[in-house]
């Protein structure tokens, strides 16, 4: 596989997982009683917008992340977050189930035992910097050899594990802060900024590895 094809398939895999997560988040949110208002797919400048099923979808060029907003305007309040109005169990389901679906997809692609093993090791990825280059190279090799189903499954479970880490701005931290979901203590925001800086630094290193491996 030539370099351009490799970049294309890497983009498609990342965007596909981003889109599936957002779609499941919308479906789960509606199922538990929340009303999704908008979805943002990817990072960077907005390339296009459209309304689908009463939801505003925005598309951006850099995959790897997405966001679903449950805020909407009401007569009583300027910003009404229907997700925060849910009971604790429903709120937890809305946060957790989209990542359970990603792990299930990984199990379908890799087999149950291998997917769970890769999912478990994914929690340690931010702390194992010395292993990252080898992991990136092995993942590229999967894509280059056309093992796209395996690559999809692997990326799905790793992204699920990363997002379930106990940082305030990730799903794992959101679950831990469930009792304070409507009024977060001040220290949470400070901890969130520190952990966000650490994760961004890690992500930049991953991007550096991706670029240097490609060239």
From TrEMBL:
Claim: Transmembrane helix is one of the keywords in the record: yes
Domain of life of the native organism: Bacteria
Transmembrane stretches, start-end: 6-28, 160-179, 191-211
Keywords of this entry: Membrane, Transmembrane, Transmembrane helix
Protein name in the entry: Peptidase M50 domain-containing protein
Source lineage: Bacteria, Pseudomonadati, Myxococcota, Myxococcia, Myxococcales
């Amino acid at each position: 596989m030539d370099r351009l094809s490799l970049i294309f398939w890497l983009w498609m895999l990342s965007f596909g997982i981003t889109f599936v997560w957002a779609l499941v988040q919308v479906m789960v949110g509606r199922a538990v009683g929340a009303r999704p208002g908008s979805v943002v797919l990817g990072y960077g400048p907005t390339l296009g917008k459209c309304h689908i099923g009463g939801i505003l979808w925005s598309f951006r060029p850099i995959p790897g992340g997405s966001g679903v907003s449950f805020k909407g305007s009401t007569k009583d309040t300027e910003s009404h977050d229907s997700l925060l109005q849910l009971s604790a169990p429903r709120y937890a389901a809305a946060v957790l189930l989209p990542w359970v679906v990603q792990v299930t997809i990984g199990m379908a692609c890799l087999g149950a035992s291998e997917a769970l093993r890769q999912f478990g090791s994914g929690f340690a990825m931010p702390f194992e910097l010395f292993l990252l280059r080898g992991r990136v190279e092995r993942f590229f090799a999967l894509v280059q050899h056309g093992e796209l189903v395996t690559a999809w499954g692997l990326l799905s479970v790793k992204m699920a594990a990363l997002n379930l880490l106990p940082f305030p701005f990730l799903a794992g931290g959101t679950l831990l802060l469930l009792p304070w979901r409507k009024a977060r203590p001040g220290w949470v925001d400070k901890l969130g900024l520190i952990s966000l800086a650490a994760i961004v630094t890690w992500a930049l290193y991953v991007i550096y590895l991706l670029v240097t491996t490609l060239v």
